[in-house]
Specification:
With 143 residues, the protein is mostly helical. It has helices at residues 2-18, 25-46, 57-64, 66-97, 109-131, 139-142. The longest helix has 32 residues, at 66-97.
């Protein structure tokens, strides 16, 4: 994250003061942002820190409790597995076509493979939660 902040500052500073932006700064920032999001994904998933909307939660939790929690976990696991699968397919296409960024020529495949790996790790975290629920955890806490 610090790389993104420093590089953005230096790029803007150099652009306005010297009329010479940092070459490839936007590509580096895009790669760093993607890695930041996907590296954090397993940790966020592990600690249940995703953004959630509880519009129906009071009614569903009261009526169905653990079943709703299990369903939420199953849908989350499936969604993360789908993201991991599609990213791995995309990474394979990038590797086969040797797709690279325009300015710096950075290969796209390694980034997509890394993103797929972290999405798969997140799906694994949720799958473990489904397979081995924490003892004594209330259904409301799980959802």
């Amino acid at each position: 994250m610090a790389l993104i902040v420093v590089l953005t500052f230096v790029d803007v500073f150099a652009r306005y003061l010297f009329s010479r932006p940092v070459q490839g700064a936007s590509e580096i920032i895009q790669f760093a942002m993607a890695l930041t999001v996907f590296i954090a994904l397993p940790l966020v998933t592990r600690h249940r820190e995703h953004v959630t909307v509880g519009l129906l939660e009071p009614w569903l939790q009261h009526a169905f409790g653990a079943a709703v929690a299990w369903l939420c976990e199953a849908v989350s696991c499936a969604a993360l597995a789908l993201v991991a699968w599609r990213l791995s397919v995309q990474a394979g296409e990038y590797a086969a076509s040797r797709t690279a960024t325009i300015v710096l020529g950075l290969p796209m495949a390694p980034l997509a493979y890394a993103m797929a790996l972290f999405a798969a790790l997140s799906a694994g975290v949720v799958a473990l939660r489904i397979a081995m629920p924490a003892p004594g955890r209330a259904a409301k806490e799980i959802a």
